[in-house]
Structures are given as structure tokens and as C-alpha cells.
């Protein structure tokens, strides 16, 4: 059973006057411990990045860069055919932008988490994962890589010594392989169902797949999405359910310290 867990959410995912979802970032910021902030390619712009980092700093929420494919129209959820080196250069460009806003507001870059289709491509593309992790080893050796456990990204991080955080997706379904099932329009999920799913994953290390089977799942952070309809209710019910079970919510730096005290490793 997990005694402490991080909650991360994708934030800053708008562009200019255009907004997505039914929940504003300010409402969610006080309910999470880590923020994945869009960096301009799939969503976000300089003013929004500045605003979102400032909000995170004010709420004591750790900041992470959330780079994606250069795909504003498709919200970064369409695969772009490019070489691994080209894609990592896109990531470097985006991480650099977010890191400067973090410096402006006196906060560190806690983590980098690729977005959407880029995240899923990296999970199964060892070359892309390795080049990405090589960049992290050079430019941000103490920053965490957020990824799925057992993915190519996770393997590359472990092999290189880059700290990694495994995620559990609260508002996404899983298949029997442990991969996320992509749904273009997920509708409005039931927050109570999600809360029960999260508590079970934390207590029993299991999640039910779309085919009805149970699979084992290991993670340090729970992810949900600000563009999921009802995101605010989801956040409240998850937190309340976890707290009721005695599971503490904390950023990954505290989780790392907790594991170290118990002789465990991330």
C-alpha cells in the first residue's frame, strides 16, 4: 500500500483567448502537488506559461515542463513523423522556455513530462527515449522524468541513472498490456468511480482493464487532466478518498525522501 503519493495535472493548456475543458487552472492548483505546464507547441503561450508558473509558485506546487508535438490544431494528440533528434530538439526548445519562466518566479524545474502522442510514442520508441534521456542527463540531471512504468522512457531513465517517476492515469482506461487506451471524446466520467479506482490502485496495486481483467500497476504519481470534463470534482473526490484511507499527498521530492528512509529506490 502506498503511504504517500503525488498528484499531477496538465495545466496551462489554452492558447490566447481559447480555453479547453470546464475547469480553470486556479481552481485546480490548490488540489495538486505537481503541475505539468504546456510549453507552447500543443497548447500554451508565453503569457499563459508565465501566469501558470506564478500560480504554482504561489500555491507551493512543483513545476514541470509538458512539451508536445508541434500540433496546436490537434492539441498534440496526432503523431508527427520526424526523426528522434528533431523531436528531442523540439523538446529542448520547449523545456528551455518553461525553465526561464520558472527562474523568473524563483522555482525549480522539478520534472519533464512529454505530452499526449509524443508521450505515447516515446513510451514505445527506444531511440527517442534514449536521446531524450541523454539530453536530460546533460541539461537537467536532477529533474525527474514522468513516464509509464516499464515503458521505453522508464527503461532509458533507469539505465542512465536519470530519476524517474511512474504515473497512474486516473481518468484514462488501461488495456491488458498496461498501456493507456486513447479516447478522443471521453465524455464526463463519474468522479466517484475514478476515486475508487485510484484508492484501489494505491492500496492493492491493481487496476481493471477495459476487457475486465485486473493487472498490477506500480507508480509514485497520479495523473488527471484539466481538460477532462468535471476535472474539479475529480480532484476533490480523489483527494478526499485518499485522505480517508490515510494516504498522504506530497510532491515527488518528499516521496523520494520517504522511500529513501525505508531503503527503497524510485
TrEMBL record:
It holds the Pfam family LamB_YcsF. GO terms for biological process: carbohydrate metabolic process. InterPro entries: Glyco_hydro/deAcase_b/a-brl (IPR011330), LamB/YcsF/PxpA-like (IPR005501). This is UPF0271 protein.
Amino acid at each position: 500500500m502506498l503511504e504517500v503519493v503525488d498528484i499531477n495535472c496538465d495545466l496551462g493548456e489554452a492558447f490566447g483567448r481559447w480555453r479547453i475543458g470546464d475547469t480553470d487552472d486556479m481552481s485546480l492548483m490548490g488540489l495538486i502537488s505537481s503541475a505539468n505546464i504546456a510549453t507552447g507547441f500543443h497548447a500554451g503561450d508565453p503569457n499563459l506559461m508565465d501566469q501558470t508558473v506564478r500560480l504554482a509558485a504561489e500555491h507551493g506546487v512543483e513545476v514541470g515542463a509538458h512539451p508536445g508535438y508541434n500540433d496546436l490544431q490537434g492539441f498534440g494528440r496526432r503523431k508527427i513523423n520526424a526523426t528522434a533528434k528533431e523531436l528531442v530538439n523540439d523538446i529542448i526548445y520547449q523545456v528551455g522556455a518553461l525553465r526561464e519562466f520558472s527562474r523568473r518566479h524563483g522555482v525549480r524545474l522539478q520534472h519533464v513530462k512529454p505530452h499526449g502522442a509524443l508521450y505515447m510514442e516515446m513510451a514505445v520508441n527506444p531511440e527517442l527515449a534514449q536521446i531524450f534521456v541523454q539530453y536530460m542527463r546533460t541539461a537537467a540531471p536532477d529533474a525527474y522524468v514522468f513516464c509509464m512504468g516499464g515503458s521505453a522512457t522508464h527503461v532509458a531513465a533507469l539505465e542512465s541513472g536519470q530519476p524517474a517517476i511512474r504515473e497512474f492515469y486516473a481518468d484514462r482506461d488501461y488495456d491488458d498490456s498496461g498501456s493507456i487506451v486513447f479516447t478522443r471524446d471521453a465524455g464526463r466520467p463519474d468522479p466517484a468511480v475514478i476515486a475508487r479506482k485510484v484508492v484501489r490502485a494505491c492500496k492493492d496495486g491493481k487496476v481493471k482493464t477495459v476487457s475486465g481483467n485486473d493487472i498490477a500497476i506500480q507508480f509514485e504519481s497520479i495523473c488527471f487532466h484539466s481538460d477532462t470534463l468535471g476535472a474539479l470534482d475529480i480532484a476533490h473526490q480523489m483527494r478526499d478518498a485518499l485522505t480517508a484511507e490515510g494516504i498522504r499527498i506530497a510532491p515527488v521530492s518528499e516521496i523520494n525522501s520517504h522511500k529513501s528512509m525505508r531503503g527503497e529506490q524510485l
